[in-house]
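dude i think i finally got it to work??
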Amino acid sequence: MTPLQGLSLAAVRLSDADLGLTHILDEAELARAATFRSPALRDTFTAGRIALRLHISALTGDSPGSLTADYFCPTCGNRAGHGIPQYRLPSRTGHLRASLSRSANWCLLAASLDEGLAGIGVDLEDGSAADFDGFPSLALTATERGQLQEVPPALKAKFQTRLWVRKEAVLKALGTGLAKAPSAVDVSGPIPAGLSGPPAAALWKVEDLSPAALGLPGGFAAAIATWQPRDVRASWPDGIGSLPPR
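look at this
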């Protein structure tokens, strides 16, 4: 895959988001926020969307309130505010691809100006997020479980979470989220395996991200996944380095 053009990553504290900026969100985003019964969850969702708009604005120069959220779900085929995060901007044709992930009081943001990009996904988790009984059988492929057996016991929880954030990043880049079983997607090799449709033959890049480089506290795990069709003209409908045990 050629390097992404204009890829921008940032980690921000959700508590730093100014909820007084809800006016920069559009009707679709406000409607999605209203579906959360818990005020705390509603504020967390709103803070993330505000942070993402500000992040995109800093990348493109467009005012955050001028962006139009136009999420597309490959699973159900509609634009109900979920699926692949994308925005229409006054300064460009087509869509800008983006992604966000929340964990505790932190939000990881990504946006790219690469017009050939069909999907981008980021995931952020506490380092112990995947440390529970049954995780390997629930979420890992046979190959990944084999890798896990080679990891010293003291490092298994961290290794499981590394696999998990890579899987989540891939599923977000696909736009399916957990509608596709994580155990069906293998992220143990240089490219994700177990995919179908156009993404199966796409050019993929899945990388671990350094929490320290992003300004995150120690103990977090993060990853980014991107894909583009081998023929960039055949993108999604508009409308990974290897992972050795350590």
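The chain has one domain: 8-228.
im so relieved honestly
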